[in-house]
Structures are given as structure tokens and as C-alpha cells.
Specification:
Length: about 150
């Protein structure tokens, strides 16, 4: 929410924006606007039944791959296979992330409260040509016609 002023460049956030409450999310965007820096927000999670269902598959991955994770750890085996805490934490985190992800209309409401009349905003979802899970995005940058020379 308060990026140091000496840091310049396009700001990006990948699968993390849903961790911010609406006022905090607005503050993140407003900070980029105030610094006249572009910002891109990208979320794989979505508030949709299909995305939540995918989290159940995600939680199965530790059962398949834990033996090959290095360095080897007996506790990792214990908390995956005997007491499946790791898969349950992954499932819980994934489902909660899906439920907290902003919908496009909610992002639009956040943008509307910004003092950013000289900014261009794009938001939507983009799916891979293969039809894989779409990625939601919000991209904002200063309009070219008002950039300082």
C-alpha cells in the first residue's frame, strides 16, 4: 500500500490481491496512481464452482508428489499420509482464496473510488486458447496523452 517512492516501474501482483480487504485493495491501486506507475493484478482463483472444484484436485497433489520433494523429511510424510494436514491446509487455503477473489464488478467499484481521472483501466478474464482456467486481470496505467515529457 506504500511502495517506496524511489521504486519505479510497472507493479505486478500475481494471485495475491484477494488477500486485501476492499479499502486496502483501493489503497494499493491508489498508491500506484499517485506514483503515476502502471499496475497489473492477475488472479488464477475465481469465485466460481469450477474453480472451487479444482481446489479439491489441488489438494490431492501432495499425495502424489510428496515422496519426491527434496530435501527429504519424515515429518512431511507424516503430515501428508498419516495425518493429512498438508492436503487439508492446501484445500482450505484454496477454497478460501476462491471465495475471497474479487469479481469484475467489485473491481470496477474499487476503481470508481480512485482519484485517477488520468488513468486507463482494463479488467476482465482471459482464457488460454486450450480452454484452461481463465485468469482474471486488472491493469491500470497513466493515459499516454497526459504523460509528462
Amino acid at each position: 500500500m506504500k511502495v517506496p517512492s524511489e521504486l519505479h516501474g510497472f507493479r505486478t501482483m500475481f494471485t495475491s490481491f484477494h488477500h486485501f480487504q476492499p479499502e486496502e485493495a483501493r489503497a494499493v491501486l491508489q498508491n500506484a496512481v499517485d506514483a503515476r506507475q502502471g499496475i497489473g493484478i492477475f488472479e488464477v482463483t475465481r469465485r466460481a464452482p469450477t474453480a472451487i472444484a479444482l481446489m479439491f484436485l489441488w489438494a490431492l497433489l501432495p499425495f502424489l508428489f510428496t515422496p519426491w520433494i527434496r530435501p527429504f523429511s519424515w515429518s512431511r510424510l507424516l503430515f501428508t499420509y498419516v495425518l493429512p494436514i498438508i492436503p487439508l491446509v492446501l484445500l482450505f487455503d484454496g477454497v478460501v482464496s476462491c471465495l475471497r477473489t474479487y469479481r469484475p464488478q467489485e473491481l470496477q467499484e474499487i476503481i470508481a473510488k480512485l482519484t485517477a481521472c488520468e488513468y486507463h483501466w482494463e479488467l476482465g478474464e482471459r482464457a488460454h486458447r486450450s480452454g484452461r482456467v481463465p485468469i482474471a486481470y486488472l491493469v491500470g496505467y497513466p493515459r499516454a496523452d497526459v504523460l509528462p515529457s
